[in-house]
Amino acid sequence: QVQLVESGGGLVQAGGSLRLSCAASGFTFSSYTMGWFRQAPGKEREFVARIWWSGRTTYYADSVKGRFTISRDNAKNTVYLQMNSLKPDDSAVYYCAKGVSDYAREFDYWGQGTQVTVSS
Question: Which residues, at least 6 apart from 5, have a Cβ–Cβ distance to it below 8 Å?
Fold first, then answer.
């Protein structure tokens, strides 16, 4: 079955950086879009970034554009989210997600999440 396991979250000061990883299994990783979402307390889950199967095309939410970078290693079945210049508003649980296809905008599986806390 599909499994997505996030890691790399933690506590960081504003302006700092973190790199999240998501190890995927149970499907042909290289054939699917992958994405990152986040959910802060009391707020709905929101899209952060997605990357096509090939890794050549990426999309970002306006709130993270220029600060976050999504990438993938199809040989390792892993997707990453490099987060720089972190702000307190970036604090949330971050979820990795599997797209429904190679060029997907929709997602059908999510991991358990990893907590990111940015202190001011």
Answer: 22, 23, 24, 96, 111, 112
Spatial neighbors of 95 by CB under 8 A, at least 6 apart, are: 6, 36, 37, 38, 39, 45, 110, 111, 112, 113
Q: State the alpha helices, DSSP H only, in 18-95.
A: none
Q: Enter the tokens of residue 68.
A: 């976050």
> CA-to-CA distance for 74 and 31, rounded, in angstroms?
9
Return the closest-CA partner of residue 22 out of 67, 104, 82: 82
In this structure, how many other beta carbons lie within 10 angstroms of the beta carbon of residue 5?
14
CA distances for 29 relative to 24, 82, 96, 97, 101, angstroms: 7, 20, 13, 11, 10
* 104 φ, ψ (degrees, to nearest 5): -75, 150
Q: Tell me the per-residue pLDDT of 55-109, one tens digit each, with 9 for 90 and over.
A: 999 999 999 999 999 999 999 999 999 999 999 999 999 999 999 988 989 999 9
